[in-house]
Amino acid sequence: MNGEPLLEIKDLHVGYKTHMGISHVLNGVHLTVHKGERVGVIGESGSGKTTTMKSILRILPSNAIIKKGEIVYNGKDVLKMSNEELLTIRRKKISMIFQDPTSALNPLFKIGQIMLDIIKYSYNLEEKDAKEMALKALKEAALPDPERVFDSYPFQLSGGMRQRVCIALALIGERELIIADEPTTNLDVTIKAQVLNLLTDLVKKKNVGWIFVSQALGAVRENVDRVYVMYAGNIIEWGPSEKVFSNPLHPYTQKLLECVPKLTGKEFAKGIRGRIPNYFHPPSGCRFHPRCDYIMDNCKKNIPEPVEVEHEHFVSCYLYHRR
Ligand code: SF4
């Protein structure tokens, strides 16, 4: 990708303080998003995807410790921003769509009130103009009868409609980056595709950057320009989506893709032996080594440096250092 990055995460290390000690989750994460670029992040549950996303907006739980790293947004490190600067970014520039639309909307307030509060707070508008903006956003999110939705409590809407409201809220105004963390996981299978198509269309139409975090590998493959593969707090492979999915390089990515069920009916999807490591005592060197079929001496000692195997397609694995 050419041009200045909109967001650049560099060598991010994040842990959580618990009564059992420190859980060392992120172990040097890096990720770049350019203006209007659609980027996917894939990996098993517990690999640190949500911790990475919450770090961007500094909305991690209070026991989180950011040990090291930078999150550069439009040239400024989010981790060093004042509260005022951070609020401006959260209100106007970057928004996040969570997995569960039910908990994202306060059940005590009507949708209209929730939207008006956010719009008035963020854009300092009069009630009439704020309502106009809210109704326009609901219409863009393909909600039938926006006036009725505006006047409804969250419990009066279906899960799909609630997630559309969250999408409308996330795209209000002049946003530059949308982070969608498993946005369709909690929805009925029948409306997952509709909601995802809506989100993709709006992101393209408004030319905003998009980070799409998901375990639905097919959906990621179809909807993003580049993809990052995350394992146990590290980015282990990244590149243009088509290259990563058609030519997976890292042994973990290969196994992950083998987990996708085939429609041929001839074989079952394969699993990956072992499990995500214990973050209190993570494995040394390459964190995948206890599960890897190709382990070598070096793998336990040091974290492999990334290698560009084909144009813009990188992998962190010693198998490619020998070439
Ligand atoms: Fe396997 Fe070593 Fe590559 Fe890690 S660095 S994936 S242990 S071969």
Q: In a few lines, what is going on in this structure?
A:
With 323 residues, the chain is α/β, with parallel strands linked by helices. The chain has helices at 49-56, 83-93, 101-104, 111-123, 127-140, 146-150, 159-170, 189-206, 217-223, 241-246, 251-258, and strands spanning 5-18, 21-34, 38-42, 64-73, 76-77, 94-97, 177-181, 209-213, 226-231, 234-240, 307-310, 313-315. The strands form 2 sheets. Strands 6-7-8-3-9-10-12-11 form an 8-stranded mixed β-sheet, with helices on both faces. Strands 2-1-4-5 form a 4-stranded antiparallel β-sheet, with helices on one face.
Task: Please give a structural write-up.
With 323 residues, the chain is of the alpha/beta class. It has one domain: Rossmann fold (3-Layer(aba) Sandwich). It is 33% helix and 24% strand. The protein has helices at 49-56, 83-93, 101-104, 111-123, 127-140, 146-150, 159-170, 189-206, 217-223, 241-246, 251-258; strands at 5-18, 21-34, 38-42, 64-73, 76-77, 94-97, 177-181, 209-213, 226-231, 234-240, 307-310, 313-315. Residues 250-251, 286, 288-289, 292, 294-296, 299, 304, 317-319 line the site of iron/sulfur cluster (SF4).
